[in-house]
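User: Second chain of the day. Same drill as before.
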Amino acid sequence: MLVDGDSYLGPLVVNAGETVLLSAQPAEYYSFDKWSGDISETAAVTELFVENDVECTANFERIIYTLEIVFDGPGKVLVDGETYSVPVELVAGETVILEAYQVSECYRFEQWLGDLTGVDYSQPLFVNRDLFVTVQFAPDFSAGEGTAAAPLEVSDWWELDRVRCFADSAYLLVGNLDEQDSGYVELASSAANAGAGWKPLGDGSNRFTGSFDGAGYTISGLNVVRPAEDYVGLFGYTGAGSSISDLGLINLSVEGDDYTGGLVGRNLGIISRAFVVGQVTGDRRVGGVVGQNDSIIENLYARGIVSGDQGIGGVVGYNFEGMVEKSYAAAEVIGAGLLGGLVGINDFGSVSNSFCDTEVSGLNVSEGGEGLSTAELKEYDRFVAAGWNIEPTGVDRNDGYPYLSGETEPVWYKTLLLTASISGEGNILVDGETYVAPMVVTPG
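Assistant: Same format as last time:
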């Protein structure tokens, strides 16, 4: 406080009849409130005419500022331990602690923006003005934004499970997944989810409508044990506009009710360049790759065992107005009726340039697709004649059946086999090596 421009230090002697100028000067982070005592003024600067002894008090208050926090994504923030819900008033000159916490398994804390910056979930904030802070929570993936140009990257079972959180986003598998990867025991083993195993991605009320690029990698050891549930597979239900490509499932065991497939329970999107090796069991509309197909599937194969009651097929159980192109099955098919080595039921759909192994399936019928013996299904020229984008190779793989290349061009490879027989007694040498049927040979 100033009296006639001089700092007030204690009781001050003033001549009667004089006028003095009082000035109230607040310290930093304080504001002047009012005069009290023998002076009742609200102005910080006031004139005082001295007639008697005067006692007065200059009243100062701490300044109060407002903190507003905007949430980018679901999450929770504590301000000095209290949950933030609406803009809060804070005392100027003090430091508060802001803590960010995730409230959804789909999101993680990303960063602070605005008047507070940084990536540490807990940070101090000094109050010296009205403050505006943004807290950002991002999809809990190792990389990506969920767009076609920057898909969310899937590197373990936890991230694969989070695909269900953003059903319309784009995804990229960045490596093989198997029993050794993080999250397998909790999410995809036979003991996961109280013995029910993997929870399929997408269902009748929340279909997967995004894209999933397997990039030629495989997912191994998937277990699904949901015999009373419909729409069962790695994906339960893929909606219109969805796409799944370049993905292999091996060593899988899937059990559901209706609409059960190794890869997809029911498909309304596009599936291309994918395969399934394992066992698939259900009731109706059960397929090695897709339970029911209502759209387009191409360049697929299935090997293993497919079983159920009605509408059971090596690749597709029920093809409803869908298209099956350049696919084959070498799977045992078991059921009560409406069975097919490739397709169980083909209802107003099309099946072209596709095959099934009648010896493995145990069936001479299929609703679409040409039935072949095991030896015939391993003939390279047969696939060339059917217009498959296929190249021969000397790599011994897939027991001589065609296999996917993991590339756009060519889509398929076929191991070349030399089959010879001996009439009478003797041996055959191939490049000096004793022939053992069948022998893998190198093209050219």
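The radius of gyration is 37 Å.

User: Great, on to the next one.
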